[in-house]
Structure formats: structure tokens, C-alpha cells
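Consider what follows.

. . .
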Amino acid sequence: MAPKGAVRNGAAKGSLVIAGADPTFRRRLLQSLSSEPHSRRISDVGARPDLEQHVASLLPSVILFDLGAKPDPRTLGIVSALSALAKTIVLADGEDEALAVEALKAGASGFCSRGTTKGLIWKAVQLVEAGEIWVGRGVMLRLIEELATLRAQDSADRPGGECLTSREREI
């Protein structure tokens, strides 16, 4: 029997979907999140060939997508597809900043460790649903470094770009 507040199908808009290949992790997360007082429906969707279509039929506002203990490169394609359906928060083992940046590039709106507390996951869900991005401080610093590198490369690629002021480059 599903915990109170959890449903297997027919979740209304504003609902939360937990998706991924690890059924034990999904079940624990579902039970943990369902124990919190809220009016949101939570659906659990396992890995399957029609994952994107099944998630789309649930009309979630936020998807928690578990990459699993050892993500493979194909999972970022799934992140991209899910992010086209709803705001997606990626869950992964540890604090892999490079993986977090790749997930954000694939369209994710947030990135959390699989060990994140349920309170922080709910906060991430609320903020992502409101249009914010949820990442750790280290990931944010890595994103800023990457943007600075791209900007420096862009300036250097243009003839005379290194001699221009930032305002001149804008024009």
C-alpha cells in the first residue's frame, strides 16, 4: 500500500514525480517525503522504455530524477527529455560538481545529493517550482568559473577583442 499522499497514477498538475532506476531509493524517498504534511501528490515512476511518456501523463510540476549510484552518459539525455516536460531536480551520489554542471546544461533546474534531507528536498522543490535554481555553493562557483572561461574565450576569439572594454564588447 502506498504511503499517505502518494499515488501511482493520475497525479494532478502541481504534483511531484520521483523517477529513476533504483526502486529501493525511490521507495525510501517516497516514504520520507510523504511523511511531511503537504497537499501535493507524489508519484513513483521506475525506469522503463516509455519513461518520458509515462511522466508526461502525470502532469508534474517538478520531477525528482535519481541518476543512481553509478550514472551512465545516457542518463543526461533522459534529464534533457524530462526537463522538457517539467522542472527537474537531479539526485546523484555525492557532490559531483562536474556532473551537476552537465545536468544543468542538459536542462535540469536543480541538483542534490541522494543523501539530502527531506526538508532540503522540499525546499528545493518549492524554489524550483517557483522558477529558481537549486544547486550547492560549489556547483555555483563552478558555473561562474565556466562562464568566465567562456567569456574570456569569446573575447579572445574576436580580432582586437582583448583590447576592448566590457562595454565596447557589449556593443
